[in-house]
């Protein structure tokens, strides 16, 4: 298990000491968050976790597209989170209790109570609405409340939040801060499946506390299992976290990627295009980078990698690593370069995922189905640790920019 107590302390310290310095320009709200890799059984199967999530995301999008909002009919949801998360300290109530929530762009319900029990205060209002969200192998169920939510230096009054009475597979965290599109809350109110629940970002915007419905996300690569190296900016972007130009791409119209932070992109390894322009998603809840099976097979053959039977990920030798080519992501006419070092799992964490220190493991993996599914790639944290990202609901677009980590040799 990762050290929850020390992580919590770090987050709280960072929040209290950095409350104003991290605020880049008023009225932006920045919320530092911590990377924490956790494991229940000694090692984690990252690949399996990410593939289960990708399948659940695709099924969920297809269910919404087909109007199947009833949870009994649709395989609703989203993921198991226990493997690897980025966690933000979020206050709920007045006086606020602090909860450690997983930051997730692939789901939109915000809820607490998995670990630290929900503390009712004067601002808590029980709506009596039962809520249930299944996430791949985990889930939570409970009651929807409205309460005051504190994100860094700002508060949202009457924010709708789920309060879990039961939850599975959320050991070590208190719940989820869902910053995906609002549509993804459809079906979660058991008695009113076609009612959407306003998200934290939406409420900040309707309450006039942020100028636009935008969330900027900064991840940084790390070679340790926990570090305080993420930052969420509500309402705008933190220009200190990237260099070069921030380029935007419109949200894709291709379903089911269109139900998430979906974009069109093509992927080229060296000089070979392995995935022609197609739709997929950018997702903070996925650790690796997943691509359609046909593209993955080409990637494996071009890199000479073999599938490691112990952990399922591709592995290469040191000399193959030295020959590794760049992986180019072409998005709306702009090319984002994932260097060889950006394509590998941090070698100091090889044993953490059940690997051996004598190999090099690739973070590019198989999504589990051929291209043409409408959700053919997931640019997870392996990608987002190398590029600053902006999730812009107001203008229906995703922004990306290079950072000082894009070309860094870290892993
Ligand atoms: C909560 O309400 C009680 C009773 O009305 C009041 O005495 C108390 O000061 C309130 N606490 C806060 C933090 O507002
Ligand atoms: C994305 O790709 C699809 C399929 O090729 C295309 O219809 C669409 O216009 C493209 N752009 C956007 C923004 O969806
Ligand atoms: C000011 C404002 O728009 N607040 C809204 C926040 O969201 C809740 C529901 O979650 C609404 O009831 C509030 O009106």
TrEMBL record:
Pfam families assigned to the protein according to its UniProt record, in alphabetical order: Asp (PF00026)
Transmembrane regions listed in the UniProt entry: none
Active-site residues per Swiss-Prot or TrEMBL entry: 104, 283
GO molecular function: aspartic-type endopeptidase activity
Signal peptide: 1-19
Any single biological process term in GO: proteolysis
Matches recorded under Gene3D superfamilies: Acid Proteases
UniProt cross-references to InterPro entries, sorted A to Z: Aspartic_peptidase_A1, Aspartic_peptidase_AS, Pepsin-like_dom, PEPTIDASE_A1, Peptidase_aspartic_dom_sf
KW Nucleotide-binding (keyword) present: no
Entry keyword set: Aspartyl protease, Hydrolase, Protease, Signal
Ranges for domain Peptidase A1: 86-401
Record family assignment: Belongs to the peptidase A1 family.
Protein name in UniProt: Peptidase A1 domain-containing protein
């Amino acid at each position: 298990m990762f050290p929850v107590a020390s992580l919590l302390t770090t987050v709280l310290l960072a929040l209290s000491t950095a409350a104003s310095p991290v605020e880049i320009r008023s009225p932006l709200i920045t919320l530092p968050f911590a990377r924490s890799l956790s494991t229940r059984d000694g090692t984690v199967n990252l690949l399996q976790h990410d593939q289960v999530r990708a399948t659940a995301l695709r099924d969920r999008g297809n269910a919404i597209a087909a109007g199947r909002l009833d949870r009994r009919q649709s395989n609703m949801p989203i993921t198991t989170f226990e493997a690897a998360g980025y966690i933000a300290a979020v206050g709920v109530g007045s006086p606020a209790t602090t909860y450690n929530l997983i930051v997730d762009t692939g789901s939109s319900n915000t809820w607490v109570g998995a670990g630290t029990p929900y503390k009712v205060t004067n601002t808590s209002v029980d709506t009596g609405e039962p809520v249930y969200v299944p996430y791949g192998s985990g889930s939570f169920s409970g009651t929807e409340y409205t309460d005051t939510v504190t994100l860094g230096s700002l508060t949202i009054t009457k924010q709708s939040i789920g309060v879990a009475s039961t939850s599975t597979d959320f050991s070590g965290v208190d719940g989820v801060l869902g910053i995906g599109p609002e549509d993804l809350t459809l079906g979660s109110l058991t008695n009113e499946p076609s009612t959407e629940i306003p998200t934290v970002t939406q409420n900040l915007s309707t309450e006039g506390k942020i100028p636009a419905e935008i969330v900027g996300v900064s991840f940084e690569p790390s070679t340790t299992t926990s570090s305080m190296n993420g930052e969420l900016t509500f309402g705008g972007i933190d220009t200190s976290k990237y260099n070069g130009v921030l380029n935007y791409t419109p949200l894709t119209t291709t379903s089911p990627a269109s139900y998430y932070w979906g974009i069109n992109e093509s992927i080229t390894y060296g000089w070979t295009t392995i995935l022609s322009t197609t739709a997929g998603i950018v997702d903070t809840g996925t650790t690796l980078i997943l691509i359609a099976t046909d593209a993955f097979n080409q990637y494996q053959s071009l890199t000479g990698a073999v599938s490691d039977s112990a952990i399922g990920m591709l592995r290469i030798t040191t000399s193959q690593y030295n020959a590794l080519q760049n992986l180019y992501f072409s998005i709306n006419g702009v090319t984002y370069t994932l260097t060889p070092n950006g394509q590998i799992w941090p070698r100091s964490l090889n044993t953490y995922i059940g690997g051996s220190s004598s190999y090099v493991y690739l973070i590019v993996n198989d999504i589990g189905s051929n291209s043409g599914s409408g959700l053919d790639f997931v640019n997870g944290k392996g990608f987002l640790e190398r590029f600053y990202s902006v999730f812009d609901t107001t203008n229906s677009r995703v922004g990306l920019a290079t950072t000082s980590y894009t070309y860094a040799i870290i892993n």
